[in-house]
Amino acid sequence: MALAMFFNKSRLDYEEERKGLPIYTYKEDLIEALQQYQCLVIVGDTGSGKTTQLPQYVLASMSSIRSIAVTQPRRIAAISAARRVSDEMGTRMGEEVGYSIRFERKASNKTKLLYMTDGTLLRSCVSDPKIEDYDMVILDEAHERSLETDILFGLLRRACRLRPELKLVVMSATLDIDKFSEFFGDCPVFSIPGRMYAVDILWQKKMKFATLKATYVQRAVETVMHVHQNEEPGDILVFLTGQQEIDQAMRKLNEMHEELDYHEVRFKNHVRDIVIYPIYSALETLEQRAIFEPAREGVRKIVFSTNIAQTSVTVPGIRYVVDSGFVKQKMYDAQTGMDALVVVPISQAAAIQRAGRAGRTATGKVYRLYSREAFEDMEPATIPEIQRSSLIGTVLNLKTMGIDDILNFEFIDPPDPALVVAAIRQLFLLGAVNESGHLTHLGTQMSHFPISPFLSRAIISSCLDFPCSSELLTIAAMLSVEEIFTSPRSEKKKQAAEEARRQFDSEYGDHFVLLNVYETWEREGGGDKEWCFENFVHFRAVKTARSVRQQLVVLVEKLGLPIASCRGGDPGRERKRRKVGRDERRTTDGGGELDPIPILRSLCTAFYVNTAKRHTHRPFYFHYITSAGLTSSTTTHSSSEGGNEQTGQVNWGPGMVALHVDPKSALGQMSKPPEWVIYNDVQYVNRANMRCVSKITFGMVEVLMGRVKLVDERRLCGGFEDGGRRGSVAH
Ligand code: CDP
Ligand code: MG
Question: Region Disordered: start and end of each range (predicted)?
Fold first, then answer.
């Protein structure tokens, strides 16, 4: 009872809170400015009320605005904002206020305010380039400069020209907004003064970069314990880089805290107990609403977060920030031509934002786990994503909108032409564009799927070339959700989890593990939660996968493509068995035997660009296309941003990077690793790990490799004024 009351704030409570926000004082001025101008840039500190309040002011005061889209670079932020605002307005989620993220939409015909990811709005622009669904678009978190937001800048500038009645608001938490204003015809800037308390900065002593990077998780946990034992009451926010790291840190902190003998330790204050929460992109972290509530008296709340808590979500009550100084970022990997996830130092701007989280409600302290010198070495601002990530999906989207001359698109900061060329080249390798760079029928089909062009290509292949779309859709859906397996904290459970995991292993590789988990859950577990619990599988993940799968099925059917299974049942199939490597065996399953070949072949049709060959004597792999010298010299450029001094480990140059099988991979357990594999992507932690790896034979990709030699970049980018010329300046 008491708990329920605790969580259910009344409208009055919300009213009070809303009036206390910095933005509240400027309500009328803001409305006036919005009425007067078509475009407006709003800048204000994180937590000042931009995301949750401004749209409510507009709905209450501007009768001409009947539907508002607010974009967020992160799904979790879109949901959390929608939830907060519908609570504040006292409406049910999905009625007046809703959200729309990839594969998940809570909205109705009553919805006036829709929070969405920037990717969602971008995709809807394909069929609605004038954005006629909305009277106002708010591009929020513009300082993040996500790839999708950057493209939306260009598309919205065009839409504003076409529709004078459309209102556009760009909101940012940092001050470098002149560029935004300039881009939208020198539109006015409205700035909301923040109310920040002083934040003390504590630096770590100088250490080598490699040590800095190898030890920050441990040091973060130790620092939290130090703060907990020595500092006044107040919650702690710790910035780390990813889910695994956060889980690990939470485990360590729990252990250390349990070992504390409270009779021995002298606390400087009466706060002894702790409560620990994670925040990372996996949506279940949001289900713990308590993150956003103050901890009980005498308990200290400790939140471990990725950089989501830097500006996207605000955790109240934070007085201490522990900043690791690192972030996990997407980086274009010139060698493989795809994005890789890399842990890199944050920028100075990010460090300042992180510190600011400690001074929202009182004076605070930030413990920087790096030295003043290391701070001086950081980039002043984070490089926009468009300049450091693969543009393959973006270019496909733009081409579908009829924007063919990508190099001359209205970018707020243009990407390196080499990245555009590389994307067009990849699209050619997938068959989405022809040799002159024009969209093919296949490319048009691919663009209907809100997933990576590689996966959509594989799906289409599984429909048309190697019938197994039923299975491939499952694999694609499972690849579209976060962590499948839970990582329990206690040692005993960890072992049980490991054993549970092994029952899904497949000698063919991780794509088959995904398939096994999903199919077993549906078949044996009846799709319920209990089964997930027993098998250490995230229920939310498989449940989401089911919904994603259903949506993909609808898309496939809409395109008139057939859905077929490669599971036996037809005895004739037996004879058609072919070999994968030497040790051919089959997984048996309720519905009949699974033939892995069509699945591998469909995957190869798209992911052949991610073929890796094992080193003859050593336990790692090389990216085949590059190591075999199949790429033309103009494309093996090194990405200008990926300096190896920064990452410490990775050689971004044209030299060969050793690719390792992810230790968690099913293939990682094999005594004799396969000679040829394909992988879904690469993550650079301390080394380059291929994730989601499956075993193939060279025969499966040999013919496809022929296409690599057909690449003629001049022609691919030709047909535009200077496309050919700029396209070849890749070096
Ligand atoms: O967008 P901006 O960072 O300027 O602020 P906001 O997200 O609108 O947040 C305004 C206030 O609402 C903050 O004090 C948050 O603590 C609170 N809020 C919340 O409690 N729960 C949410 N899901 C979102 C915001
Ligand atoms: Mg915001």
Answer: 567-593
Which is the closest atom of ligand 1 to the Cα of 54? Answer: 8
Amino acid at 374: A
Contact by Cβ (8 Å): 319, 365: yes
The pLDDT, as a whole number, for residue 590 is 47
Amino acid of residue 305: S
Identify the pLDDT of residue 269.
63
Three-state DSSP at 664 gives coil
Compute the distance between CA of residue 604 and CA of residue 700 in angstroms, rounded to an integer: 7
Q: Exposed, middle or buried by CB within 10 Å (0-12, 13-18, 19+), for 299?
A: middle
Does residue 360's CB lie within 6 angstroms of at least one atom of ligand 1? no
Contacts of 16 (CB under 8 A, 6+ apart): none
Ligand 1 site-directed mutation target among 52, 88, 289, 311, most atoms within 8 Å of CB: 52
Q: What's the 313 CA to ligand 1 centre distance in angstroms?
A: 7
- For the Cβ of 21 lying below 6 angstroms from any atom of ligand 1, the answer is yes
Q: Whose CA is nearest to atom 14 of ligand 1?
A: 47
53 lines ligand 1 (CB under 6 A): yes
Give mean pLDDT, residues 511-526: 94
Helix/strand/coil (H/E/C) assignment for every residue in 669-726: HCCCCCCEEEEEEEEECCCEEEEEEEEECHHHHHHHHHHHHCCCHHHHCCCCCCHHHH
Nearest atom within ligand 1 for CA of residue 44: 4
Q: Looking at residue 655, what is its pLDDT?
A: 52
Ligand nearest to the CA of 142: 2
**Hey, what amino acid is at 190?**
F
Q: What whole-number distance in Å separates Cα of residue 322 and Cα of residue 310? A: 12
Mean pLDDT value of segment 190-194: 90
pLDDT digits (tens, 9 = 90+) for 264-322: 666 666 677 899 999 988 766 666 777 888 888 889 999 999 999 998 888 888 999 99
| Residue 472 CA, distance from chain mean position | 22
**Closest ligand to the CA of 291:** 1
pLDDT band at residue 644 using 50, 70 and 90 as cut-offs: very low
d(Cα 104, Cα 118) in Å, to the nearest integer? 14
Find out whether 76 and 281 touch, Cβ atoms under 8 Å: yes
Q: To test the ligand 1 pocket, which listed residue (8, 54, 84) has its Cβ within 8 A of the most ligand atoms?
A: 84
Hey, which residues does 42 pair with through a beta bridge? 171, 190
**pLDDT tens digit sequence for 23-75:** 999 999 999 999 999 999 999 988 899 999 999 999 999 999 999 999 999 99
